[in-house]
């Protein structure tokens, strides 16, 4: 049972890193980016190709995946996304889904439709076992790495959003762009930087999660619903909500598939329905928010 709980926490932390970029763009920038999974897929493919063709170590591929996908996000924000910020929600949904289909087609045509396999270094394939009476906790080293990276990213993001000048400028730009412009804040640069970081985090999630989730051209669509569930349940007003939602979903998914494999992902959707009936606006909502 302890091992199942540990695997569920690792899976939940991975979902958090994958979904937090969507939570930021939706909650802070009010943009519905359903192509978010395409950036995660890009991070995974960057990792696979670098390791396979250039022999780049796995741990070095993860920051490279962040840089590459952040750069992609910055370029696309400037030439495509920026013009859609003021459009209706339906236009944003159709636009971003169209980009996701384009990304899937490009990857399928250029790399192929087969699932990509990552060869992890030997030290990440092992596991450490701890015995607590009659219970054994088997902690895979790869999942320990995922948890450690996700915890570090959570603290860094929380610090940036709440303790830095960039975070205060971002909140000001979101609250009232005209006033922020009048105060000398370059709103376009703030939004571009935020979108790039969100895309880069998705790339990190894709790089870390390729071995756990599998990687093929349909990745953006297979996990889009999970990203949306995390954002819907956790809300978009803080990092705490998506983090807690990701942990709940990760533990529920792993536990359900272990004890009731025939039900598949039914447990996740059941948990989602129960939570949204209880808290329709998400687990963490600012007081007075609509």
Describe the SSE topology:
Elements: H1 2-27, H2 36-54, H3 58-79, H4 89-110, H5 122-125, E1 127-132, E2 135-140, H6 141-163, H7 165-175, H8 177-182, H9 187-213, H10 219-222, H11 224-234, H12 240-259, H13 266-278
Antiparallel strand pairs: 1-2
Helix pairs in contact: 1-6, 1-9, 1-11, 1-12, 2-3, 2-9, 3-9, 6-7, 7-9, 11-12, 12-13
List keywords for this structure.
single chain, 290 residues, mainly alpha, 4% strand, globular
Structure description:
Helices cover 72% and strands 4% of the residues. It has 290 residues and is mainly alpha-helical. β1 (127-132) and β2 form a beta hairpin. α1 (2-27) runs antiparallel to α9, α2 packs across α3 and α7 packs across α9 (187-213).
Helix content: over 70%
Tell me the radius of gyration: 19 Å
Structural class: mainly alpha
- Overall shape: it is globular
Major sheet attributes: 2 strands, antiparallel
- Number of E-state strands: 2
In which order are the strands of the major sheet placed? Answer: 1-2
Sketch the topology as an H/E string, one letter per element: HHHHHEEHHHHHHHH
DSSP helix count? 13
N-C termini distance: 40 Å
Beta-strand content: under 5%
Roughly what is the average pLDDT, rounded to an integer? 87
Number of domains: 1
| Low-confidence runs | none
């Amino acid at each position: 049972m302890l091992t199942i709980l540990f695997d569920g926490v690792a899976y939940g932390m991975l979902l958090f890193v994958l979904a937090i970029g969507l939570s930021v763009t939706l909650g802070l920038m009010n943009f519905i980016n359903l192509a978010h999974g395409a950036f995660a897929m890009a991070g995974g493919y960057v990792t696979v190709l670098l390791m396979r063709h250039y022999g780049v170590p796995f741990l070095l591929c993860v920051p490279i995946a962040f840089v590459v996908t952040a750069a992609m996000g910055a370029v696309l924000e400037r030439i495509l996304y920026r013009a859609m910020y003021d459009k209706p929600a339906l236009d944003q949904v159709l636009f971003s889904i169209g980009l996701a289909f384009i990304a899937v087609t490009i990857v399928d045509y250029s790399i192929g439709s087969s699932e990509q396999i990552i060869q992890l270094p030997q030290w990440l394939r092992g596991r450490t076992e701890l015995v607590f009476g009659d219970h054994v906790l088997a902690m895979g080293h790869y999942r320990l790495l995922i948890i450690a990276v996700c915890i570090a990213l959570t603290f860094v993001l929380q610090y940036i959003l709440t303790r830095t000048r960039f975070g205060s400028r971002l909140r000001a730009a979101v609250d009232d762009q005209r006033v922020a412009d009048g105060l000398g804040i370059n709103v376009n640069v703030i939004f571009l930087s935020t979108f790039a970081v969100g895309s880069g985090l998705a790339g990190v999630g894709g790089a870390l999660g390729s071995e756990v989730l599998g990687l093929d051209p349909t990745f953006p669509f297979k996990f889009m619903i999970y990203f949306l569930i995390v954002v819907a349940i956790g809300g978009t007003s803080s990092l705490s909500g998506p983090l807690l939602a990701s942990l709940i979903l990760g533990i529920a998914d792993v536990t359900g598939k272990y004890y009731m494999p025939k039900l598949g992902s039914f447990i996740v959707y059941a948990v989602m329905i129960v939570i949204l009936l209880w808290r329709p606006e998400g687990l963490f909502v600012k007081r007075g928010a609509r």
